[in-house]
Amino acid sequence: MHLDSLAGLARRRRDLRPAGTIRLSVPDGMTVPLGCDAVAVPEACGRAMTRRLPRMGCVYADEAHWWWLVPSDSDVALEWPAPARYTAGILVPDADRAPDLIHCPDSSVPYTPPIPLYLALCRVTGTTPSWSRPLSAS
Question: I need a labelling partner for 8 at 20 to 30 A (CA). Which of 14, 17, 33, 118 fits?
Fold first, then answer.
């Protein structure tokens, strides 16, 4: 089996939606050529991160969290720091209703670039980016 086949199987497996989960909707007229995942952060972190981002895509908010849309597989080789929660397939777990859209970009794609988002989150949480951490020989 090829790596592409394994990645496709993993992606299809995680697209199954658990009960009590809501899928965010991408605004009409936007395209998702790279698929779509979401990164949730507490509202206070989200507010602090906006000042550090050169460009924002779609951002949704519920009572406690902000949800940022990123291209699918933006978690590959990245350890999103706590308190962030990464969800594949733009799923909002344990939600009674869908979060509200609070920011929509002028472009036709809904993504916030994942590396600047990751770095902004690291900065706000005081976390060292994973590629900057010392390696251990264990």
Answer: 118
